[in-house]
Structure formats: C-alpha cells, structure tokens
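The protein record filed here:
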Amino acid sequence: MAIRTRGNRGRVGVRIAAGLGLGMATILLPTSSALADPAKDATYQEMLTLAQQISALKPQIASGSGPSDQLEAALARYSDLSSSLGGDDPGRILGAGQSGTQSSGPVLPAGGLPPSCSTTTSNFLTSPGSTVTTGAPVSSVLAVGGAGSYVIGVELSLNLPHTFAADLDITLTSPGGTTTVITTDNGAGNDNVFSGSLFTDVASTPVTDFPHMNLVTSSPMEPEGAFGAFIGENPNGNWTLSVIDDAGGDDGTLVSWALSITTLPAPPIITTVPNVSVSPGTTITTGSPFSSMINVAGAGTAIFDVNLNTNITHTFAADLDISLESPIGIFTTITTDSGAGNDNLFAGTLWDDDAALPVSDFPHVNNVTSTPLQPEGAMASFFGLDPNGNWLLTINDDAGGDDGTLVSWSLDIQTFTCAVGGTMADLSITKTDGVTTATPGGSTTYTITASNAGPDPVTGATVTDFAPFFCDSFNWTCAGAGGGSCAASGSGDIGDTTVNLPVGGSVTYTATCGISNMASGMLSNTADINPPGGVTDPNLANNSATDTDTLGAQADLAITKTDGVTTAVPGGSTTYTITASNAGPSGTAATVADTFPASLTCTWTCVGAGGGLCAAAGSGNINDPVTLPAGSSVTYTASCTISPAATGTLSNTATVTGAATDPVAGNNSATDTDTLTPQADLGITKTDGVTSVSPSGMLTYTITASNPGSSNASGATVNDTFPGSLTCSWTCVGAGGGTCTASGMGNISDVVNLPAGGSVTYTASCAVSAAATGTIVNIASVAAPAGVTDPNPGNNFANDTDTVLDQADLAITKTDGVASAIPGGSVTYTITGSNAGPAAAMGATVTDSFPATLSCTWTCVGAGGGTCAVAGGGSINDVVNLPVGASVTYTAICTVASSATGNLVNTATINGPAPDPNPANNSATDTDTLTPQSDVAVTKTDGVTTAVPGQSVTYTIVASNSGPSDAPTAPFIDAFPPSLSCTYTSVAAGGASGNTAAGSGAISQVLSLPAGSSVTYTAICNIDPAATGSLVNSALITSASDINPVNNIATDTDTLTPQADLIVTKDDG
C-alpha cells in the first residue's frame, strides 16, 4: 500500500506492505535523498504474492491434501528474494488459525504519530476456507486478544477467490458492534480480484474506482466504508467478516483473512479545532475543474479526525468528482460520479468515516440532501498529519448538460497528543438525581461521584459543579470511599480542590437544589473533575457528567369573577372584577381568557400583585398571556356596555389555564350571571310647522317616536286619532334601526320596533274641511311593550294646535306690451297686484327683482282701496294693503343695457299673510327676445386730392359704432394698394378694443365696439415713385347687428402728379 502524493512534489509517504495470511505490516522508509526504488518495490510485491500462496498452501499440506512441492518452491523463492534485499522480510508467516503480534511499526499514514505516542501493531489471521455460494451468507469470526486498548489503525487482508466479484457484499464488524462496508458489488464480472487484496484507509484508490482486471488481484484499495470508524475502540474480542453472494451463477471460497491493528496503550488527549469554513460561491461547469482553499492555523500538530461539510448545488450529482487534499499533499476521494441523476444531493452534507452508509450505497432522493455520508476514500488517511496549512477541495464536473455552485464548505478537525511520563490517572465523574422530571417550586437531590480508574493515585483533584440558574438554593455534603477524601459540606457552587483519589477510590457529593417556582424548560447541571498539575488524564471524555431534567411545573391556578350585582339593564353598563391567582408550588406562564358575550362591548385594565404580570390594558375579549409566580395574582377590571338588544340573562365566564400541571382544575373557571331588566325612555313629538290654517287648506304633520335608550323596545305602539275636520294619509320611515308600517290612511295605530337610539317618523298629509272653524288640535302617543319599563312616561304624548284662518286669493300680472327689445333701448312694464278675497290681505308683499341688464325707476297707484309706495328705483319689494277687490299698479320704466344678449326675463310675485286658496296666480313673468341693433361706420381721408409719386401721404381712418347696441364683433379691413408702403398707429375710445396699437402693411382686425365707441388709425404711407394714375384706398367695417350698411366703407382718392427735378450740366473739360 502506498500513501498518495499529489503530482511530482518530491514528497514521499510511508509505504506499508501487508500480505494476506501474513497477519503483519512492515514499514519501508526510503532514504532521505532518494525516492522509493521501483525495482525494490516490485520485489516486495512479489514476496507478498508468494506469502499469500504460502499461507494458502500450509493448511492444505497440514491436512494432507496439499502439493508439498509447490510449497517448497514458494518458500525457496521467498528466501532468495529476501536475501536480495539484504534480509528484509515483509512479514512473519503464521500457520492456519494462528494469530500473533509484533511491534515493527504502526499501520499509519505519512504523518505518523506525535513523538509522545507509543504504539503497538498486532496481526491476526484466520483461514476458515468457507465456501461462498449464492444466497448463503458466510460469517467468519477472528478472535483478537492481547492488543492494546485504543485502536488508531486497522487494515484487512483478504484471500477470497470468486468467479464474479460484483456478486459480493462484504462487511467487517468490530467487537464493539461498529460495522464498515468493505465492498458491495464492485469488480464487475472479473474473477478472483480479491485473492490477496489489502484494504486500508490510506490506499490510493477506493475499491469502487479500482481498475479491476480478470484474474489479477486488486490491491491495495480503500474500502467503501472507512476503517477510521473503529478509531478509539477496544479491539480485543471477536471481529466478524460477513460475505454475501447476492447473485446466482458463480461461487468462491473465503480462504483466509487477517487484521493488522495498531493501538495506543491509553486514550490520547484530543483537542477540537474550531470549525473553519469558506463561502467561495464558485460556479461548477463541465470540463473546468477547480480547487477551493481553506487555511488552518493554530491547531495541534497531529490529526485525530477530520470531517468535511459541503454545500454544493448541482443538477446532476453523478457528474461530480470531489477530492480533499491536506496541506502536505495527501488527498482522499470524497465521491466520483455517485448519486445518479439526482439534484442537489450534497447541499449540506457531512462527510464522516463514522457515517452509517458510504456515498456509493446511500439511497439518494432527488432534491433531498444526502447526509451523513462515508466518503469513497477515508478521512482516516489524514490521521497523524499536521493539519496546519492550506487544504484544497477539488471539484470536477466530468459530463455536460448540468452545472452547479460550490456555495460553501468547512472542516471539523480534532488533533491529539499522548501523555508524556509522570503520573497518569483516568479520572471520571457521574451525576444523577434519579429522575427525569422535576417540579418548579420543589427540590431535587443530585448524587455526584468522582472516581479514579488509575493507574496512579491522585492528590488534589478538583471537582466543580456550578449550581444551576434555576436553583434558589444549592446545599451539599460529601463522603469518600476506597480511601477517597473531599470537603465535608458546603452551599452554593461546588469548587472542591481537596479531592484525593487513590486508584479505585471515589468521593460522592449529595447536592440538594431548591428549584425556583418560576423555572421552566430544562434543569441541566454539569459536574466536572480535573486532575492537578503534573497528572495526565488519558480519557478526558468521562471528566464531565450532566444531568438534565424536564421541568414539569405544578401550579394550582384559580380564578374568580363578579360584577357585584344580580341584575343589569340592556343599554347600560356593568363592571366585572376578575382575579386569577396561583397557589403554587410552581410559578407558571398562563393564559387568562374571557370571551365576553356578543351583547357586551368591553375595555379592561389589569394590575398584578405578588410578582404577577399581565397586559396593562386592552379592549374586547381577554386572551392575555400572564406570568404567575407562586402566591401571585392578576386582577382585571372590565368595564362593559350592554347591548340595548340584550334579553334574558347575561352570563359571562372567565378561565385561567397554565403551562404547568394544575392539581386542582375545578377552580380554573368562574361565571357571573345577571338577570336583564330592559328600560326604554320612549318619547314622541308632533308638529305641522304652522300655527294657523285656512278652511279647505292642507296640513302636513311630522310625528316622530324615538327611544334614546337604554334598552331596545320591540313592539312599542304609536297612536294618533285625527280630529273630524281632517282627512289624512300617511307614510312612515325608520332611522337608527327603527321600523314601522310604510304607509296608511286615516288614524295611526302602529306597532313599531324602537332599538335604543332608533326612531320612526310619520308624515301625515291632511286636508282641512271647508267648514273648519276655531282650532284644530291633534294628539299622538307612544307606549312601551310588555316587559320593558319606561322610566319617564311624561314624554309619551305630543299635540299640535292650529288656528283656522280666513283666505285671500291674491294675484299679479306683468307685461311690457312687446315681445322683443333692443339692447341700448328701453321698455316699460305694467305690474298689477290684486285681491279676489274672500278676506282682505293687509300687509301683502309685491316683489320684482329686475335683471342686471335693466336699470329701472317705477311709480305705483292704488285702486279700490289698495295702497302702495308711490315711487322707487331699482327692484320692487313693497308692502301693500289690498282689501277685497282692491289692486295696486306699478309702472316701471327700464333702460336695457347696450351689451344685453339672449332673452330679457322678468318675474313679479305677490304673497299675503293669510292662506291663498290659489297660489298659482301669485307670480307673473314677462319675456322679451333681445334683438341688438348697431350702426358701425368708417371714415377715411388724407386731407389732399393729389399726391406725388416718391413722396408720402397720411391717412386718418376712424371706425365707430353709434349704437344703440354694442357691436362686440366688428371686422375692420384696410388693404393698402401695392403702390403704398404704410405704417400705422391706433387709439381706442369709449371702451373699444381689439385694435393693435401699431403695425405696418395692411390692417385686418376684429374690433369690439360698444355703443358710442371708436378706434382711430393714423397711417403714414410712402408712394412708389413709379406710381401713375390715381391713388385709391378704401377701408371697410361690418357687424352682424348693423342696421345701416351704407356707411360701412370709406374711400380716399388722390390724383398722382409726378414731379422730376431735372438738372443739366455741361463741361468741356
């Protein structure tokens, strides 16, 4: 077996050769200046093969069935090869069924052991010669005795010829019951590949990846599982090799098998290195292998155990090859193409030699993390190496179509040393209180025993036990046995430094914990023993002991509830006092609950006593998590409004429940019950909004029955018997939940529902008899239903009284005698108010609000005794006296605004103090269509009749409106002839607008010309020098309301009189 190295780095590992049937292992060390000699290695390999043959032949010869000549030839060749190596011997050949030990060196990797460690390697062989057939499991037992007590290395040599290797499942089980898988269905259809195989954690190739060849022994190999799982066990006892042929058609023989076991005389001192992790987030792609590094520093110098944690996402696990390399270049295979086509199997995987199944045999499930797993190679191959330096995790995706990510990975490392000389004592401690549960508020008693298993006595060991947080008191005594001694007693934490322990001696502490009544969860307590300086404890694992009890609290919770009364009024209120208490012995978290009836609307406050804690306030139901130490309480004061609709009885229950066991559950709820006694203060109002009425008139009554509370009144009665002078019909509408009959004729006698705050309103339309005289008195009433008390019956009646008045038929007329009017002109209205009786109308009112487009003055003359104001200005609002047959006539002269448009509408009204039997003639309206008339005109002159080409003329152009109506849109144009080049200015007057203050070229503007306004343009024009004939220039203005188009155009004509100032000069030079 060769320890693996990476590349050609010049690192040489220890080579360990082991022969099947030799039951030994020999360490071959190369010189410091050279690598191992390949020829020498080949010689060793041949010697190992011969040793296997010799081991197989000896038992046959001993039984008289073997070929002795073959044995003699093998022995002779073996001796010759040994001589060629200077006497080197790969091992000591043992006979059938024999076992033996030697101390030639440990079965360890290149790292070796710390200098302080002394090891022994023992070799054991058995030759069962058992036939392996399909479906008949073979178990072979190898007894191991006389080895050391602490395993640090195991190797298996196997001679199992079989004609179809892939049929075989082989496992190895230690005396302690640990089983590791050697191979399951590996080797394909090759024959006899395990006929001399060495299985070791430090082989370069796992059995799953070995290039097996037909009839060629496969060796050395890593088993599917890891022999590192046996580290720390006592190897003495029966080891079992189990072989199963799980497919038909082939068989074989378990000729022999051997174990090479390396042990320490005592357990090493193990130190755990803090977890080291890295999160590279590297993408895994096909054909792009990469390595991720973790640096370990500050650890010990010899590895005891290594575990790998990976978080790798990948959508096809079988694409992945993963290996882990130590700082000195030794690596192990984690997985090669395991997991089939499943996704994300290694996204949180622990790789551990102690796992139950190898990665190659694990029942992987898609998108479910496979963990824990034994790697294909063994983590034990790192045993003894220095962990400090750079570790590499290498990943290769060797098939296309899928990818993934190395999210993170980490290492859990333990290092070890061995005790160096001096005193050694295996101190241990136990602790128990004999129970698994404890009661808060009670107590528990721990028995803590410290002992010494030797081999040396100890003076001055230290026992510590810190009192648990939940112990209110912690008192202890101590007594020794077998010569052990300790402090006699104490209270509080145990910190005894006076413990003396001869070999086999012990000290026992009896510690009583008074448990806090509010303790919860778990009561955990740990005791430790530590050796004094100069004493080495080879097994620190038993130096601490913890006792854990589930805290099973017991609390006698109780609750009371009362509102101090036995009756309650719907619509009123009541106040409950609710007290939850804890009589112990344990404190507990609890819940106080009170689901108030739907008929209650509540708010509440809470105060604790004796350490009790609760919510300070809330509204609605109580569902309050509270804290109740033993002897404490919480008190709620709940102020509740009772629904006005509530009936029957008011029953309310409060409960308290706790996390602790309650020994008296009967007092965990309390109920308060009150008889409901409804009260409703019903009232009624009635009015028709008037105090008098005329015969043959109409009265409209509004009758409202209401219930301001406290309780609902369902089935109340409203009555109204109308007097004989009225003929009535009515409707009814409810509000606030009130209901009533929608309508009716004649008297009202209605059963209604009046919730608190509700009402019903009747509207009764009543015709007054023509013979009615005097007064009309009408009374309405409301009465509570049976079972409802009305505390104020004085408002259960209402009446309305009206005086019967005489009538006056007032009328008014209004006209201006025309159907149209001109804005800017005037109209004259004649308005006549009269009284046809039968009663006089003294103090009637005539009103006429003239529209804003009118400016009016008026006079008035009475006739038939009628009187009015003589004259006035603006709108009419005149108080007049009209005896029967009298009238008043107003003459209103009104100027119409020149800007008025549309229709001129004006209404006059008359109203009297007494009812009017015919109000339809109390108003009159006159409407005139407004027809605007405007006279827009234009003038134009330049003040001359002739003009000279090449000179200029100045035009004055005036656009105007002489009314009477405004011309809001008057297009104005002056297109100067081509022979003129003009600039102009303009000035508006009388409110005119739309003109441009200055410009050049032709004028084209839309003017707004109120009546009497104008715009004056001054145009200065240069005459073209080439102009001839006459200079003719016209201006034009138009308006839709123009009544005189004759003056809408103006023209100025000038005769052009060219002038030339000719000059002649002559010069003969």
Summary: The first strand starts at residue 15 and ends at 17. The CA atoms of residues 596 and 621 lie 6 Å apart.
